Amino acid sequence: MSAKTYEVRTYGCQMNVHDSERLSGLLEEAGYVRAPEGTAEGDADVVVFNTCAVRENADNKLYGNLGRLAPMKTKRPGMQIAVGGCLAQKDRDTIVKRAPWVDVVFGTHNIGKLPVLLERARVQEDAQVEIAESLEAFPSTLPTRRESAYAAWVSISVGCNNTCTFCIVPALRGKEKDRRPGDILAEVEALVAEGVSEITLLGQNVNAYGSDMGDREAFSKLLRACGQIEGLERVRFTSPHPRDFTDDVIAAMAETPNVMHQLHMPLQSGSDTVLKAMRRSYRQERFLGIIEKVRAAMPDAAISTDIIVGFPGETEENFEQTMHVVREARFANAFTFQYSKRPGTPAATMDGQIPKEVVQARYERLVALQEEISWEENKKQVGRVLEVMVAEGEGRKDDATRRLSGRAPDNRLVHFTKPDEDVRPGDVVTVEITYAAPHHLLAEGAAKAVRRTAAGDAWEKRNAAPAEKPQGVMLGIPRIGAPAPTPAPTAGPGCGCD
After folding, report:
1. Which GO terms describe its molecular function (predicted)?
2. Between 20 and 30 A from 143 (CA), which of 133, 247, 250, 272?
3. Could you report the per-residue pLDDT of 146-200, keeping only the tens digit for each?
4. Which H or E run includes 308?
5. DSSP conformation class of 353
6. Residues 6+ positions from 401 with CB-CB distance below 8 Å
């Protein structure tokens, strides 16, 4: 009898992406195998939806997908459907009432129970709904099937202590819980031993790390400790909060060679009035002060941000303050969102909801300004010689253009001429930038150097294995590294929006 197959469909933020790696690892440890790439919808024996409650119309999208699977499940009695993640944590019993063909509903705190719940549902022939109210096990203690051989997420904390009025995530993920530094570093060292050369430290509010342990400098100490790990070439982190971004973190970034000069610093609004209404615990002056300090310590730093347009009560003057901060900060890119109501958040019931057409017009002005700045900032890269880590799946036109794609140290996307010698994802190619577009750089000349790496070896070993090629998860926010700044006109901020 052949092993049962599974498919995990992931929506939302980096936390969900990382959780899905855990869910895949759990299922494979329990004897399931991943459905081959190209498997028709409904042909996997187990389909898991790892949901997001932040995205607009997240529930409608979920029930639409579940509805399409219902007749397929009727034809295949042994098929099972599980729903987990933030929407499951929020809606609980509602999911089974609206979609009674779902077998398992589990929350953000008990993802480790999925195989047990699937088996229980099969034996009892009844839906299993189990939502834990607090974290049962830190996610990194669970088995993992990582999406990349050369780059990895490493979770350092879960939960969030903030109370932003537009965000429901703290209610679903709980209060911040920090992982012990020794456990984090042990995981990083194990990953490097497997060939991983780039890690991204992950937390809902990553630079608040240490608050659970009473050490305000724990995050900067962690960054410096990562700098001591031999073979670890690149360290990134997401997403920090301006409130907790202290001088010791800036110093650690500047002084630790393998910590990349890349920073994602969510602004949300440039208006002090709107920031107060959002319950963001900083103001415009504080935010711009951080940017100034970062640039003084790391002139080459690429800084990105999140911005919400049309928050309830936002006036034209308030919006102009956001435009002012964008002009002053000169972000490399920005993830811009039109505000839309999120059920369960204080902002959803606030007075002063802005008409859609006003929000749209402001959004278009902001995007146009940021596009202009992104292009100007990228043009400054022309003529620079950069070490690019070759990536997998970053360049959609690579086959047609005979190029490869990868990320510069500051995480800018670079397309470059394919070298004559064999190059693998995870290897490092030195190139000279010859052209800049708003969202990518181009190196049209011959590569100056190619360095084969242990990360490339790891990629080659994984792809030489007889197992099916890993199937990509459906992400609302990207894989390893900062996402491409594609405008999302009706989406809300991702979970990592601090």
Report:
1. 4 iron, 4 sulfur cluster binding; metal ion binding; tRNA-2-methylthio-N(6)-dimethylallyladenosine(37) synthase activity
2. 133
3. 778 899 989 899 888 888 998 877 777 778 889 999 999 999 999 999 999 999 9
4. strand 302-309
5. P
6. 395, 415
Domain end residue (candidates: 110, 130, 150): 130
Q: Rounded to whole angstroms, what are the CA distances from 443 to 333, 384, 427, 439, 450? A: 20, 10, 16, 14, 14
The residue among 379, 409, 424 that closes a domain is 379
Residue 495 clears pLDDT 70, i.e. is over it? no
Q: Verify that 67 and 159 share a domain, yes or no.
A: no
Q: Quick: pLDDT tens for 299-350.
A: 999 999 999 999 999 999 999 999 999 999 999 999 999 998 887 889 989 9
Residues 6+ positions from 302 with CB-CB distance below 8 Å: 261, 262, 263, 332, 377, 410, 411, 412
Q: How many domains does the chain have?
A: 3
226 known ligand binder: no
Token readout for 397 is 């036109």
d(CA 152, CA 26): 17
The full DSSP string for 397-440 is: THHHHTEEEEE-TT--EEEEEPPSS---TT-EEEEE--EE-SS-
Residue 284 lies in a domain: yes
How far apart are alpha carbons 104 and 83 in whole angstroms? 6
Q: What are phi and psi of 429, to 5 degrees?
A: -120, 130
Host domain of residue 205: 140-379
Total Cβ atoms within 10 A of residue 248: 16
Any domain includes 484: no
pLDDT digit string, tens, across residues 421-470 = 999 999 999 999 999 999 999 999 999 999 999 999 999 998 885 544 44
Residues 372 and 418 in one domain: no
497 annotated to a ligand binding site: no
Question: Do 173 and 299 have their domain in common?
Answer: yes
347 and 391, same domain (yes or no): no
Task: Kindly state the helix (H) or strand (E) to which residue 6 belongs, with its residue range.
Answer: strand 5-10
Phi, psi of 117 (to 5 degrees): -65, -40
* SS3 state of residue 347: helix
Same domain (yes/no): 94, 10: yes
> Residue 194: phi, psi to the nearest 5?
-85, -5
Angle (CA) 409-478-37 rounded to 5° is: 120
Read off the pLDDT band of 140 (50, 70, 90): low
Closest by Cα among 492, 476, 477, 172 to 344: 172
